[in-house]
Design a protein that fits this description.
Blueprint lengths: L2 H15 L1 E3 H8 L3 H13 L3 E4 L2 E4 L16 H12 L7 E4 L3 H11 L11 E5 L2 H7 L5 E5 L3 E3 L4 E3 L1 H7 L4 E7 L2 E3 L3 E4 L2 H12 L1 E7 L11 E4 L6 E4 L5 H9 L3 E4 L1
Parallel strand pairs: 4-5, 4-9, 5-6, 9-12, 12-14, 14-15
Antiparallel strand pairs: 1-3, 2-3, 7-8, 10-11, 11-13
Helix pairs in contact: 2-3, 4-5, 5-6
């Protein structure tokens, strides 16, 4: 197992459990205790965790795993969701993409769509996510509009009043939201209130709103609300979604696509 893979696995275990012992982590990952101690020390230097005697705990009380360490979580589900979301977008439309691992996969799915190889432009993409803009900027058939703002390192998203200024001047056909939680009662949510505010404005500027969320996000709540469930037109999730949860979304008026 490579160092990056170990670090991702260790951080995911910490998110789930809150605390890890060296011996426990070594057994889980099938590596030596010395390797885990070294990994813990290096992650602590990056303020990704807090070292304890014999182990580590999560960093802070509102721990959020940075985007670069989330990419392996529910990867196959996110790719299927992304392909389905990309299929909902028509050539020539203007689409808004928030930050996140699932929306990054949506951007990649749009980039390889055969019917988006021509046009002036074939698609306009508005995003506040630096990594998405970076990946799509090399595609000459796509017009990329970046909002501006202050970069949030956990999600690579631009936030703040500079981003507000751009979004208030445009309209888009469809907004694709990546969320950390989506519940019928509490709506779509993010960990960070500034990030949620930008995503909310993107929704307000769109004719229709699509939430792209794997089943682990459904029925969950998070700190900062983006929008109510009835502001969303379509939910695209994976086939493992709880049928009762899906039924509740459909009764709320959403179209649910499970892939």
């Amino acid at each position: 197992m490579s160092r990056d893979a170990r670090w991702k696995a260790l951080l995911e275990l910490l998110v789930e459990r809150g605390r890890l012992d060296v011996e426990e982590a070594a057994a889980e990952l099938e590596v030596s205790a010395a390797t885990i101690r070294r990994d813990f020390d290096q992650l602590a230097e990056q303020q990704m965790l807090v070292r304890t005697r014999g182990g580590a705990v999560v960093h802070g009380v509102s721990y959020e795993l940075p985007l670069r360490y989330k990419t392996a979580r529910h990867a196959s589900e996110k790719q299927r969701i992304a392909k389905a979301v990309a299929g909902l977008i028509a050539p020539g439309e203007a689409v808004g993409l928030t930050g996140g691992t699932t929306t990054t996969e949506v951007a990649r799915a749009l980039a390889v769509r055969g019917d988006l190889t021509a046009g002036v432009p074939a698609l306009t993409v508005v995003t506040n996510a630096l990594n998405i803009a970076n990946e799509l900027a090399v595609r000459p058939q796509l017009k990329i509009v970046v909002t501006g703002g202050v970069a949030r390192p956990q999600s690579y998203e631009l936030i703040g009043p500079l981003a507000d200024g751009v979004l208030s001047q445009i309209t888009i056909d469809v907004a694709v939201l990546g969320v950390v939680a989506f519940d019928v009662t509490h709506g779509a949510a993010a960990h960070d209130e500034a990030e949620a505010a930008i995503n909310r404005l993107l929704c307000e500027r769109a004719e229709r709103v699509v939430v792209a969320a794997d089943s682990s996000k459904l029925g969950q709540r998070a700190f900062a609300r983006i929008c109510a469930a009835d502001a969303v037109d379509t939910l695209v999730t994976d086939a493992a979604a709880d049928p009762e949860t899906v039924r509740r979304f459909e009764e709320a008026g959403l179209r649910v696509i499970a892939v």
